[in-house]
C-alpha cells in the first residue's frame, strides 16, 4: 500500500474540511441518507503506473586511491556512505547524516592528494577513499567494496578502516567499535585522535547483532570481514532518531563544529600516516566545507548513480526492495456518491414515463380541450 505526503496548502485544507464534514455521523437516519446523497466523494489517481515502482537503476560506490611510494604498504580505508533515507524520501536531506561525513571525506581527500603528490613524501600507508552506496540499507556498498577488494587484492594487508558518520553537531566525538580494540593500529589511531581533539573523545563498544537484519554502524561490516575498523560520529547511540530524521536539514548543521571535527580527524590521520606529532592541518577552512555541504548536504540523495568523476564500482542490493518513485503527482476528482446517481436515474425514469404517458394521450387530451373551448365560446 502506497503512503503519500503532501505539503500544506489552502486547497488541501479545503479538501480536508470537505471530507471531515461529509464523513460525520448525522443524528437521524434521514439526515444521514440526505448527507450521503448530496456529499462529494473523492477519486485519487496517480500519474505513475504501479508496474514501474520497483527500482531497476544501478547503484555505485565511488572510490579514489592514493598510493604510497612503496606499493607494498598496508591499506587504510576512509569510508562514508552517501545516500539518504526517510519516511518521505523526497524530503530526506540528511545534512548531518551523512552529508557531513561526505564533506569530511572529500576534504581529507583534497588534503592527502596534495601531500601524496609531493615527490619525497614518506607515507606509511596506501589510502582508499570510499563513498559507499546503500548505507541506509545495512551498508550494502561497503559489503560489496570489501568483497571486491579482497578478491582483487587478496595478498594485501589492511591496517584499519575508518568510517565517518554524522560530524556536524554535538559537543563530543565518539569512536564506535565492536569490541575493545587490542590491535596496535586501532589503539594508536584512537590515542592520536584524542591528542589532537579540542573536545572530548570517547570510545564506545557494542557487539554486532548478527541476528538483526540491519547493521547499526558501518564499521560492523568490516569487522565481520575480520578487518579492524571504527566509526567516528557525534552520536553516542546508534538508535538516535535524528540519524533518520526529516529535520536533518542544512539549518540544523553547525559548520563550526564540522570544521573542528575535520581538523581533529585530519591532524590525527596526518600524524598516523606520516608519523608526525605536530598539528599540520590548520588549512581546513569553513568555506570549503560549506561548499561540500551545499553540494551534498542540501538535497536528497536516494540510492542512485552518483555524478562524481572517479573510479566507480557497481553493487547489487540484497535483502531489500527499492522503489524509484520519490515524488508523484496525484489528481483528485470530485464525484457524487452512487446513491445520488440512483436517485437521478429514478427521476429520469419518472420523467420519461410521464412524457410517454403524455404523448400516448396527447391527441385525446388536445381534442377534449378544443371541445371545451368551443363550448365556452358558444355560450
Automatic annotation (TrEMBL):
GO cellular component: endoplasmic reticulum membrane
GO BP annotations, alphabetical order: regulation of signal transduction
Membrane topology: Single-pass membrane protein
Compartment list: Endoplasmic reticulum membrane
Transmembrane segments: 338-356
Keywords for the protein's UniProt record, in alphabetical order: Endoplasmic reticulum, Glycoprotein, Membrane, Signal, Transmembrane, Transmembrane helix
Domain Peptidase M28 per the UniProt entry, residue ranges: 61-217
Principal location listed in the UniProt entry: endoplasmic reticulum
SUPFAM superfamilies hit by this protein: Zn-dependent exopeptidases (SSF53187)
Coiled coil: none
Top-level taxon of origin: Eukaryota
Family designation: Belongs to the nicastrin family.
Protein name (Swiss-Prot/TrEMBL): BOS complex subunit NCLN
